[in-house]
Amino acid sequence: MAEITPPASWTSAQTRAQFWAIAVLRFRILRNGLRRKGGWGDIVATLIMVPIFAVVLIGPAVGSGMLAWYFATKNDFIFISVILWAIFALCQLASIQLGQPGTTFDPTQLIRFPLNFRGYAAIRVFFGLISPANIISTLMSLTVAIGVTVAVPSLALVSFAAMAAFALANIFFTRMLFAWVDRWLSTRRAREVFTLVIFSGSMAIQWANFTFNPGFHQGRDSHVKAAARLAALKLYYHHAEPILALLPPGLAANAINAAHFTFWSTAAAQIAGILLFAAIFFAVFAIRLYKEFRGENLSDAANAVAKTPARKHTTTTPAAVLAPASSLQFSTPPTISGVLQKEFITLRRNTGIFYALVAPLVMVVLFANLKAAKTPPTILFPSAVAYTLMGIVPMCYNSLGLEAAGIQFFFLAPVRMRDVFFAKNLMNLALAAVEIIAVFAAITYTAKAPSPSLTVAVVLWAVFTLGISLAVGNYRSVTAPKKLDFAKLARNQASPLSALISIGLLLVCAGLGAAFIYMADYHLHKPWLLPPIMLAFAILGVLIYIASLKTLDQLLADHRDTLAEELCKAG
């Protein structure tokens, strides 16, 4: 990449050569990745998912532009800050939910080369520009500028300048935040506390949306109550407005408002204030990068070595190790119980998994409380169960991701891998059972309990869906593994093709169940047909799952090198 001994004065030509070398390196890694098994599948899955995310993105972007246009036509430019605060909050929430862009290599590995800090910081910033959250916030900021310009063409220059500065500050704030969060999350206790904060905050936002959004209260609350809620929100906003006006969203809105009254110097000062915030965010981000550049190690292994005191060596050997291999080869119950205990400890310690499991359940409770009065149980209960499975099914497609280098112990131990996967799948089934029971209790409490035939049919549908998902997920866990690191927040944690397959399969199963519910309950008016039909599908799902278990040992043997290469790699 560069000379081993750098010259006394580093030139810009050498910096450009380094950047070009990194770009060529990334291209070659991408090209070589297409040669491995499943490489083209991940590319195709990414190309399929991009238009879907683009369609989802169009709605908020167009809505932001239309709201900005509406406020500009009414000369209420101050209220544009509300849109910008929503963009800011959405950017941070999207960074958590969608993750940072997946890179073909860990950029921190570049510190081993003779790269100066400015070049390293520029590379790290560039890697973060293409994250979904930054794309969303930048596009929404652009539509706000377009909306203001369409309403008041004379404000075009100030609008685009203010929105560009706001987007830049948003990008640097996100990079700063998650760089320092990764530092704080270097310990398990900090990860638990932070996940609790994120979970509480995101659920509070959803609760506020469901509580104060008039669209969710049609037919239940009067317009007087809706107006009272909005008045209360405006009162809280006016109390906090002096402080909010000093932050980037308020500065951007005030800059446009000042330009509307031809206070150009004030508008320029407001935009300069936003750029000052962007510079501060980048400076704090650079402090974190400089520590990484100096070789700081934040891994759990490094923290364990630093904090764990030395222990006296003991010669006690576990009885299981001294037992002959023949006695352990067929010890299925101990193998399953041991893996189950490990999976429970993993679930307890990795609060990111806990968040993925609990968040859909809380959303179901909130949504059921609002829709209970006008949604029949024949639709509410099946929809809620299908939605809660969205937190469990993706876990089945990378069952070995948290094993990391520990996968080698499974290969060395005299155990059958089908037993290991069966234990992991039992944990998934137990979680699904707990969530289905919780959903049933929530809907029974908020509305009317679903009929016994519908309850049995939905449970049998869940058995069918989980059986198919576990069979396919186990296969993808072996053929397309991905190392997981929950000490790094907002990282891409799954293979794109596996994510697409999990979503597609769940949608197909949900569509199949909805079709039979409609046929039996609404078309034929014979709801008693649902349980026997779903029983046949449940048996089919169980048989497919059992058949897939019988092939796992040979499948693991055929892909042992792929698993070791992916799960044991550093970074």
Number of helices: 23
Helix-strand topology string: HHHHHHHHHHHHHHHHHHHHHHH
Quick one: biggest sheet?
A: none
Label the overall shape: globular
Structure, described:
This protein is mostly helical and 571 residues long. It has 2 domains: 53-304, no CATH class; 327-567, no CATH class. It has 23 helices and no strands. It has helices spanning 12-33, 39-73, 80-98, 117-128, 132-151, 156-184, 188-212, 223-244, 248-260, 264-293, 300-307, 319-322, 325-329, 332-349, 351-371, 377-388, 407-412, 417-446, 452-479, 496-523, 530-549, 552-558, 560-567. Helix 6 runs antiparallel to helix 9 and helix 9 (248-260) packs antiparallel against helix 10. It is globular, with a radius of gyration of 27 Å. Residues 1-6 and 312-331 have low confidence and may be disordered.
